[in-house]
Amino acid sequence: MQWWYQFLQETNRDRAEWENRDKRNVKFRDLDYPANYVQWDEAVEFCRWLTQKAGLPDTDQCYEEFTLPGAQPDGKQQREWKFFPQRKGFRLPTEAEWETACRCGAQTTYGFGSDPSLLPYFGVFLETSKQQPQPGRSRRPNLRGLFDMHGNVWEWCHDKKRNYAADLDNEVIDPLGSDTERTHAYRGGSYDNYARHGRSACRIFDQPGYSYAFVGFRVACTLAEVQDE
Length: 229
Prior knowledge:
By secondary structure, this protein is an alpha/beta fold. The protein has six helices and ten strands.
């Protein structure tokens, strides 16, 4: 949450406006809690800001904004982002990256296995959260050392909606979604959903301009390849 507050301040965003999006959970604005009520576009802008904070040049930005011709029904221009995942900057993970990080090589329902009795140790869901977000890292990490892959808040991914069945015959690796779609994926489940929505394979899609109390994001970056000597 600390980095999110700093982002709001340095980009001249209204912190009070963001906090008022979810008055029910205003008491969960402590720095230990995950940032929530974040739109997909805002998560992308955060990644661009963080790339600048890291001292990387504009040529390392993974997102470049452009505006599509024509206005939307609300009269606003439709924003789009060219995606360059191979660059060194920060970005949202693709769905394939997110699921790989979550599964840790397992084919089970959750990254820790399929035994629902273990859920309270690894995930924050409706069954275990009293319908309230929890501080980050309040549950055990997965085998890759990543916290909160199951529950607490959904996490925006880069990808637009795509039917995986369409890729079965083509052996597509890490598809980024359809260019004709507007909705983007989020993964992982949340404190406001039952544990079945936090399965490693569960996918939800929504409009990039929507935000909810139970949706946040996770940041990723592409590491430079290590050259053999």
